[in-house]
Amino acid sequence: MKNKQIHLRNASFFALAFVILGYVVKFYPSTLAGFDSNVQSAIRGNLPSGASQFWTSITVLGNTVIILAITMILATIFYYYKKWKIEAYFLLASFAAMGVASTALKYVYQRPRPSIEWLIDTIGYSFPSWHTASTMMIAGAVVIIVHQRMKKGIARLVLQAVLILLAVLVAVSRVYIGVHYPTDIIGGWLLAVTLLQMMYPFYDQKRFEWRFQSKQK
């Protein structure tokens, strides 16, 4: 119960941070212009061709079709091969919750995308970044599952670090290719962490119950 309260308290903190940022994005966007511009310039530079090719390739990992395929493949492996049924449900629920929340919030804030050169074509509003939220959400969910299921050691730490690194790279790529402000990225991260903190205690409780009832390993 205490751990549940801690996670829900953390979720409230990150949700509040998201709401505050969203309020500024919606009603006082000019106050963020300097920060966004400076970070964009630092990340994009003069758009060297080699870097552009790298970042446009990385950003594909957060495309809806790709992240959905990754989620479905992992959930299938967890459910049928590893017999980790609740973990599979947790992963699918994480993707669904993030998708619904991120899409709905885009229409709440209706932030136009940056008026700079884009390296890819895209549509829709800018805040929060769907790619950022989705990759961090799925990476975070898998990190949790790995932490619970893999033995403690260097292999587990490396895998968890790689997952978070990939999510961060996708987030940075959205700024580099010009389709998101840095504050969109922060918003995406805050949203993902909020949802994970909200969902984790319920998932962990159900996992304990199912193992106690011998519904899964």
Mean pLDDT: 92
What is the C-alpha radius of gyration, as a whole number of Å? 18 Å
Number of helices: 8
Oligomeric state of the chains in view: single chain
Distance between the termini: 23 Å
Order of helices and strands: HHHHHHHH
Domain Phosphatidic acid phosphatase type 2/haloperoxidase: 88-200
Protein name: Phosphatase PAP2 family protein
Organism: Streptococcus suis
Pfam families: PAP2 (PF01569)
Structure description:
- Residues 88-200 form the Phosphatidic acid phosphatase type 2/haloperoxidase domain.
- InterPro entries: PAP2/HPO (IPR000326), PAP2/HPO_sf (IPR036938).
- Pfam families: PAP2.
- The chain crosses the membrane at residues 12-29, 54-81, 88-109, 129-146, 158-179, 185-203.
- The protein has one domain.
- Helices cover 78% and strands 0% of the residues.
- Helix 5 packs antiparallel against helix 6 (130-149) and helix 5 (85-109) packs antiparallel against helix 8.
- With 217 residues, the protein is mostly helical.
Topology:
Layout: H1 2-27, H2 30-44, H3 49-59, H4 64-81, H5 85-109, H6 130-149, H7 154-176, H8 182-212
Helix pairs in contact: 1-8, 3-7, 4-5, 5-6, 5-8, 6-7, 6-8
Kindly list the characteristics that best describe this protein.
mainly alpha; 78% helix; 8 helices; 217 residues; single chain
In short:
This is Phosphatase PAP2 family protein. By secondary structure, this protein is mainly α.
